[in-house]
Design goal:
The protein is mainly beta and 163 residues long. Helices cover 6% and strands 55% of the residues. The protein is globular and about 45 Å long.
């Protein structure tokens, strides 16, 4: 077993419909939903979070017409994994600002950014990954900011890996 087999991982699926134009003062979002899965390592259980936003007129959510992307599993730091653990997020009113950036036609690579926002508005970058393999369709970027919801059946993902 290699050291990579013991590293924490994340996976993102995001789908948005709306119109957000870069450098414009406002964007229109019909709806954007995302799932963020994290796990302590390849063999650990997955914790899945959901984020959704509908009918917004701001620059925090949206895509250019329609965007849908699913990443493959990618590596995240131990600090990122710890920040996203269930026991750190329960009952605190956290929001997540999640972005997948890059032009994508069926498959390719994109950048993934996620910022955790606590109940008083203080942001903490938890994912900043580049050139992540993914599939889907988007013109520039798909993003969502919304309340972080723990999906049913979630439980802690513990590291039980020996390299």
């Amino acid at each position: 077993m290699s050291n990579l087999d013991c590293m924490a991982q994340a996976k993102v699926t995001i789908l948005g419909a709306g119109l957000t134009i870069k450098n414009a003062p406002v964007g229109l979002n019909a709806g954007t939903v995302a799932l963020l899965g994290i796990r302590a390592n390849r063999s650990a259980p997955t914790i899945t979070y959901g984020i959704a936003s509908f009918f917004d007129a701001d620059k925090n959510n949206g895509s250019i017409v329609i965007g849908g992307v699913a990443t493959e599993w990618f590596y995240i730091s131990d600090e990122s994994f710890k920040a996203l653990q269930l026991n750190n997020l329960s009952g605190e009113g956290y929001k997540l600002d999640l972005k997948i950036k890059g032009v994508l036609l069926t498959s390719g690579k994109a950048d993934v950014e996620a910022t955790l926002i606590n109940s008083v508005g203080i942001p903490t970058s938890v994912i900043d990954s580049r050139d992540i393999k993914c599939s889907g369709l988007q013109v520039s970027e798909t993003m969502v900011r919304g309340e972080l919801r723990i999906m049913p059946g979630a439980r802690e993902s513990v590291a039980n890996c020996q390299p």
